[in-house]
Amino acid sequence: MGEHSGTVVGGADGVGGLGSGTPGLSTESTGGPIAADHPGVTDLFAVLAYGEISAFYRLAEEAKLSPTLRGRVAVAKMAASEMRHFQTLEAALADRGADVFDAMAPFVRALDAYHDSTDPSTWLESMVKFYVGDGIAADFYTEIAGALTPEVAAVVRDVLAETSHSEFVVEEVRRAVETSRAERDRLTLWGRRLLGEAITQAQYVMAQRDELTDLVLGSAGDLNGIATLFERMQDSHAKRMAVLGL
């Protein structure tokens, strides 16, 4: 789920560029490898693709929130990365005989709902959403990638590849929260909200898409494995927040 692929079910927003890495999260799968022609792989590529294209447009819009030219340029570079990732996924879907727009359609509602419910009102909220939201999504999809065949996993890892933008985000947020306790408290609550909304939307999408649910179950092993995965994601989220000084 980019940035703003940033939901677990989307890229990203992010889906998108992995702004923060995946600290402390295992990429080993309890099952697999899952066949490359598994129908859930098409769903996986599609949800990542919508996350990336959503992130592109949202980052372009949120660049306006930056108080500095440096910030606007940094966000423009993030947006460019999201578009490159979208094009990678578009090609991967085409190789599978799937039209990217038809494939993305089932995920539009859930990803839009996530972004609508976590629409940043300030520059700092936007930066936290990019960093934390991308991290949540990357944790989820990197875990799944561990159960996929090498050629499929390579596509997923390519679009989640860590970018150089994370250092800029960390500097911006840490500088702000070190000088303002009120800002730190507010952004801490914001980060918790991002995690909760991302997991909620992930569960909604999996309930709606049997093929994707089967893929996730195949990577986690069983329902207990999924619960454990979400627990690890929460631990990684806490570490990521700490990096931001939150």
Taking all Cα atoms into account, the compactness measure Rg is 17 Å
Number of strands: 0
| CATH fold descriptor | Ferritin
Q: Please give the count of helices.
A: 10
Principal-axis shape? globular
Low confidence ranges: 9-32
Given helix and strand content, the structural type is mainly alpha
> What fraction of residues sit in β-strands?
under 5%
Q: Tell me the major beta sheet.
A: none
Query: Into which percent range does the helicity of residues fall?
Result: over 70%
Q: What is the element string, with H for helices and E for strands?
A: HHHHHHHHHH
Number of domains: 1
- In CATH, what is the homologous superfamily? Ferritin, core subunit, four-helix bundle
The first-to-last residue Cα distance is 22 Å
CATH class: Mainly Alpha
The CATH architecture category equals: Up-down Bundle
The average pLDDT is 81
Would you write up a description of this structure?
- With 246 residues, this protein is mainly α.
- The protein has one domain: Ferritin.
- 71% of the residues lie in helices and 0% in strands.
- The chain is built from ten helices and no strands.
- The protein has helices at residues 39-62, 69-95, 100-104, 108-117, 123-145, 150-159, 165-179, 181-208, 210-220, 223-243.
- The radius of gyration is 17 Å and the shape is globular.
- It starts with 38 loop residues before the first helix and ends with a helix.
- The model is unreliable at 9-32 (pLDDT under 50).
